[in-house]
Amino acid sequence: MKRTIVLALIAVSGSAVAHPIRLAQASAAAPTFAALDANHDGKISVHEASANDEVFVAFKKLDVDRDGDLTAAEFAAFTPAKK
Q1: What gap in Å lies between CA 20 and CA 54, rounded to an integer?
Q2: How far, in Å, are 31, 57, 82 from residue 78 at the CA level?
Q3: Residue 70 in 3-state DSSP?
Q4: Residue 62: which residues within 8 A CB-CB, separation 6 or more?
Q5: Please, which residues have CB within 8 angstroms of residue 64's CB and are 6 or more apart in sequence?
């Protein structure tokens, strides 16, 4: 029984570590640049943008310099859909 609980806790904690972007996004109503910039490099990659469906869909349009990353200025043009 103890072994099952320990293994379950390891599995749960492992999945939390594997998806930090999704966990950060789930707690926010509207995406912020800081929340999506998971590695804190000052830009949002396509992978980081995938944490939010709306940002991911708008990524290509927002990336005006077509370098594959969103700067804070590019992200500022993002307007989330009203719900």
Answers
A1: 18
A2: 10, 11, 12
A3: strand
A4: 55, 70, 74, 75, 77, 78
A5: 74
Q: Place 82 in a pLDDT band, splitting at 50, 70 and 90.
A: confident
Q: Considering the entire predicted model, what is its pTM? A: 0.64
Instruction: Extract the tokens encoding 51.
Output: 């944490």
Count Cβ atoms within 10 A of the Cβ of residue 71 and give its class: 0-12 exposed, 13-18 middle, 19 or more buried.
middle
CA distance 70 to 46: 8
State the Cα–Cα distance between residues 13 and 19, nearest whole angstrom. 10
* CATH architecture designation of domain 20-75: Orthogonal Bundle (1.10)
